[in-house]
């Protein structure tokens, strides 16, 4: 009976040791180092810098190698740190949940710091909005007084070529004998004959030829613009 009791006790001891080892392996270990110099790191079981881990309980083994720094890990449910003046090894048991965790040296938190995600992490940010369309360019069109017709830039230069895009055209019809008529790819706008008016048109010009003229004298009062 005594021999059997010893065997049972030995088996229980071995089983307990195995259970502890399995639990430790399942939980995993993280290794933090700070110093010498202005360095701070957090490594996973594979020896690589930690970027993301699964939620769970971890053993955080910190090797503090400098009396000028400390290792401070904080995040959801976790706030552990070594003392600045201490040098040596210290182990913490930390339970990490979904979210983002940071580790810093408190006296030099602006430069000695790092972070990692636990779980799936936050959703990716939405894509940036599309860029705003460029503002519409301005043009000045006029017909009259007399037998004149023109299309010019705001500084008065005669328009011979334009880039495709959006334009705001201010049309000044100064004669009752003619009108201002513009046609092109997707464009066909005109003022009325015998109409004196100042109008504003919003036009989208496409590649091709843009023609402006007076309907009462299309051969004499006309101009062309190349849109590229």
Low-confidence parts lasting 5 or more residues at pLDDT below 50?
A: 1-26
Distance between the termini: 103 Å
Principal-axis shape: rod-shaped
Strand order of the largest sheet: 3-9-8-5-6
Radius of gyration: 39 Å
Report the CATH C-level class of the largest domain: Mainly Beta
What is the overall pLDDT average? 87
Report the strand count. 18
Put simply, the count of helices is 1
Taken as a percent bin, the fraction of beta residues is 35-45%
By helix and strand content, what is the structural category? mainly beta
Q: Report helical residue fraction.
A: 10-25%
Sheet of most strands: 5 strands, mixed
The CATH architecture of the largest domain: Sandwich
User: In CATH, what is the homologous superfamily of the largest domain?
Assistant: Cupredoxins -  blue copper proteins
Per the CATH scheme, the topology name of the largest domain is Immunoglobulin-like
């Amino acid at each position: 009976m005594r021999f059997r009791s010893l065997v049972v006790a030995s088996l229980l001891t071995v089983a307990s040791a195995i259970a502890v080892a399995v639990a430790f392996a399942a939980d995993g270990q993280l290794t933090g180092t700070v110093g010498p110099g202005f360095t701070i790191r957090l490594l996973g079981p594979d020896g690589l810098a930690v970027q993301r881990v699964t939620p769970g309980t971890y053993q955080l083994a910190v090797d503090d190698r400098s009396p000028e720094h400390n290792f401070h890990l904080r995040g959801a449910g976790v706030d552990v740190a070594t003392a600045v003046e201490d040098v040596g090894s210290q182990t913490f048991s930390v339970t990490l949940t979904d979210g983002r965790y940071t580790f810093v040296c408190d006296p030099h938190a602006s430069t000695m710091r790092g972070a990692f995600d636990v779980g799936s992490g936050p959703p990716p940010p939405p894509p940036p909005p599309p860029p705003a369309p460029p503002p519409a360019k301005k043009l000045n069109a006029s017909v009259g007084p007399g037998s004149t017709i023109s299309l010019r830039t705001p500084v008065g230069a005669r328009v011979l070529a334009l880039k495709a895009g959006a334009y705001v055209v201010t049309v000044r019809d100064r004669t009752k004998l003619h009108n201002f008529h513009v046609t092109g790819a997707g464009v066909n706008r005109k003022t009325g004959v015998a109409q004196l008016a100042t109008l504003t048109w919003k036009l989208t010009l496409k590649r091709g030829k843009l023609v402006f003229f007076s309907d009462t004298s299309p051969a004499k009062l006309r101009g062309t613009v190349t849109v590229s």
